[in-house]
Amino acid sequence: MKETSANLKRMTEFGIGEGISEIIVATKNSPSGEKPFNAAPFGIIWKNDKMFLRLFRGTKTCENLMQEDFFSANITADSVLYARSTFYDLDSHEFSTLNFSGTIVPVLKEADRYVVFQCKNRVLAEDTILIDIEPIGFKIQTPTSGFLPNRGFYSILEICIHLTRYEQTRDPKYIEWIRHHWSLAQRCGRKNDKEALAILKKRMAGFEDDF
Ligand SMILES: Cc1cc2nc3c(=O)[nH]c(=O)nc-3n(C[C@H](O)[C@H](O)[C@H](O)COP(=O)(O)O)c2cc1C
Asked: Where is the DUF447 domain (predicted)?
């Protein structure tokens, strides 16, 4: 489904543009789950004026979005939040909630901005699910003065992605890529990028010999 030009303009104002924009998706867990909400990083794909998510099966987010039609896309430059939400559950008190026509939608309190999306159509493939999405709500929580590109921050995102793939496949190419980004994050990163590295180091303790 093509987006309206008003929606595309609003998305651009919120920093989500063509290509793949990295955000943290917050979803509601099933009532039988231990925790009420889940958060994890995903890419919003914007192509030919359409927006969608491509979710690998097996993730909690994928499971939740097969049941729920609403989620929030949280925009932040906090690499610690990325590292924690990729590999661990966030605490319940880190979420606030919105009510969309009787449906509860979680958002991250610490996000600078968020966009609420509605899932429109799901296409199931063998390993992935493609979901057409439409933005239905926008909010700025913390006006920021702009985020200057920092290689340390992007390297933390790369390490998170490669480490999830390494955990699934044990393909040694990911070790090389993680090493490369590790040294960049150490060299260029800011204080919270170093804190994110400490979280990732703990996560990698189980595979110390591989690294
Ligand atoms: C920056 C970034 C972008 C990601 N994008 C995607 C994506 O588009 N699709 C996907 O299936 N996994 C993606 N991942 C991996 C998931 O975040 C990861 O599998 C996570 O553990 C899923 O958590 P969950 O089981 O709580 O949903 C991404 C990870 C990062 C760090």
From this structure: 21-136, 150-202
Is the CB of 55 inside a 6 Å radius of any atom of ligand 1?
Answer: yes
Topology at the third CATH level for domain 5-140 = Pnp Oxidase; Chain A (2.30.110)
Q: What is the pLDDT of residue 57?
A: 93
Pick the CATH number of 151-204 from 2.40.110.10, 1.10.3810.10, 1.20.58.290, 3.40.50.2300: 1.20.58.290
Q: Using the mean position of ligand 1's atoms as its centre, give its distance from the Cα of residue 10 in Å.
A: 25
**Residue 155 predicted with pLDDT over 80:** yes
| Ligand 1 proximity of 26 Cβ (cutoff 6 Å) | no
For 19-62, the pLDDT digits (tens) are 999 999 999 999 887 899 999 999 999 999 999 999 999 999 99
The pLDDT assigned to 145 comes to 66
b/e code 125-158 from CB counts within 10 Å (16+ = b)? eeeebebbbbbebeeebeeeeeeeebebbbbbbb
Does the beta carbon of 164 sit less than 6 angstroms from any atom of ligand 1? yes
Ligand 1 atom at shortest distance from the alpha carbon of 160: 31
**pLDDT value at position 195?**
98
Å from CA of 81 to ligand 1 middle: 13
Q: How far is the CA of 110 from the centre of ligand 1 (A)?
A: 19
